[in-house]
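Journal club side-thread
Mid-discussion, someone asked how the predicted structure for our own chain would compare to the paper's figures. Pasting it here so we can look after the session.
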Amino acid sequence: MLIRLDHDLLRSFVTAAEAGNFTRAAERLNLSQPTISLQVKRLEATLGQRLIERSPRAFRLTDAGETLLSYGRRILALSDEAVSRIAEPTVAGIVRLGTPEDFATMHLSGVLAAFSRAHPNVALEITTDLTLNLMERFAQGEFDLVLVKREPLGPSQGVRVWQEALVWACSAEHYSSFAGSSDTLPLVLSPHPCVYRKRAMKALDEAGRPWRVAYTSTSLAGAQAAVRAGLGITVLPAGMVPADFKRLGPKSGLPPLPETEIALMTGPSPPQPAERLAHHIVRSLELVGDRHGTPEM
């Protein structure tokens, strides 16, 4: 007899796999941690396969778990889209979302396209800006939702939806000019206030490495053009390093950088379309994020 997947069990598994533990998954689904653990065990019993290897110090998907996670995301996304189109056809309005430009460029287009397909009567108004500006404008009521770069601050400061390593990067053409050089390091950065700018300067100061800001740009494309021209090096999430850039690491004389974290903040009593989009973003983005390799050594 063909095994049928219980969507509630599947959702608990997918959420736990993305969150990296049962506690965060329970918070996201508004369930207890023992309930999440029990549901994953029931799913494993249904499939006759161990999906997650877990111990007090480890939480790792098995090969079967990796396979099911890939299918599970698609199954749940399609199911949720169908329910939204049929059961909630009257959801309509405008949602004002603020987001950092780089995150919007790399990670949001598919997420927002899926939401628009499920809610064709909802108009999305997307604004990109620096994190501190976004937070200030959010406090002034200009946005329904904001995605912000942050230090690990805890659940009271929004819901974490992405985490990724930060790396130093330069143009591959000019790599030899920066790798191993002890000269004052030219930096290509976004203007103040910028989380990456702050982290770059702090890391270099703590390492005793002299630096100067050689080029400042509010545009991601402008900053990358400056790096390509050899004006300096920059800081990027590991998954956003262009193919014609090279990473720089400890063997190049550069200190490690802390991970970047993206959190979703929602205003009090959000309108229904904003509430739906917030749920969709949290569900769609991996809570732990992708870790795209290690820096160039």
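Post-session note: The two ends are 53 Å apart (CA to CA).
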